[in-house]
Amino acid sequence: MKTRNPYLFTYFNLCLLAILQVLLSACTEQTEDKEEKKKYSIYILGFDKQEYLLQTNSLTEGILTPEKNGVLLNDKIVSREMIVKSGNYYHLDSKNNKLSRYVKTTTRLKETGVLNIEDFRIENFFWLSPDTLLLVGLDRKTSSIPKYHKINTTRFNIIESGPLPLPKPQGKFESTSIGFIHKRENKLFIGFTFHQFNESYNYNSSDTIYMATLNYPELTLTNIEKDTRSAYPGGINTVQPYSFTNENGDFYFMTCPGIAMGNMPNEPTGIFRIKADENLLDQNYFFNISSIINNHAYGLWYLGNNKAIVRSERKDLYTNFSDLHSTYNFEFHLLDLKNQSTQKINLPLDKGTRKECVIVEKGTAYIAVNAGKENNYIWIYDIKSGTLKKGVQLSGETDYIFRIDRNF
């Protein structure tokens, strides 16, 4: 009578157990790696110099830590210069000529589409429709050749691309910045400026604002307007917004002559307007912010009812550009666009030069403030009453809250 080999039986069972564990692990990993569809998105730079992306359904309470509640990002292929819409993240890796579309899962940032876009750096974007994205930018080598790409974000393909009929820098000016784009019916407005390189923070800007008006969709140039009331119209809006359209269809944009942008500190930060029924800058409107707060501002968020928020530096609290971003010196101010007055919002001093840090919805502004380790909060600002209270806390490795976005 044959007897069963106990060693063989044990070996067989161990192999079977190992196979089952592998299968179970694979199923668990697949189950956990689900697309996350929460209402808000938060982009963090940690004290560990790592970057994280979090999502949450509430900004009003609780504690979030990037290393526990977020996913770690590969900063070699993605950065905070993102476009966030409808649960998708769009990012251009200009070094590799790759425009990617991502979704956040519970474990990673997952690429769901990729387009080849050569020799291009995004300066501004504009949503022509819910699924049509217009990208405007410059060549990578000289930053002086304006280009555009129109993208269908559902099929994720390029509809059309080409050059933009804007003048190139001349004389002492070597490069260009495109500070805003705005489409209104059959017109496209593009604000831009020119730069020259020097020893102080690499470059400074022209003391003239340029605004081109193009026919749309032909993209033929009809007019270039010049204005010397301030310098550097707008800014890179994948990092921070600088313009909006109000309830009446009037378009507003802010200039950025401060050392973090135009590096023309003797020029005032100001707000310009193009009326809804006009195609030229309103020569009767210029909101000189610097003359009131005696500082420069970066970032403009519209609250409704002719009210807006700007984020301004305090030149008495930093030394120069080298410590501007790391010093707690930024204040938030409420602007009355009609009466051209300002009021400081009673928030702690913030740090970080340029951030997408305000979300406005249903009479509330959610404002992200970095006020020191374990004191990073998204504050809840009641627009009507002006009252403030702390919302969700960003703890753990949180150093900078680079951006907060509404996903859906």
Automatic annotation (TrEMBL):
Q: Which residues form the signal peptide?
A: 1-25
Q: Which UniProt keywords apply?
A: Signal
- Record-given protein name: DUF4374 domain-containing protein
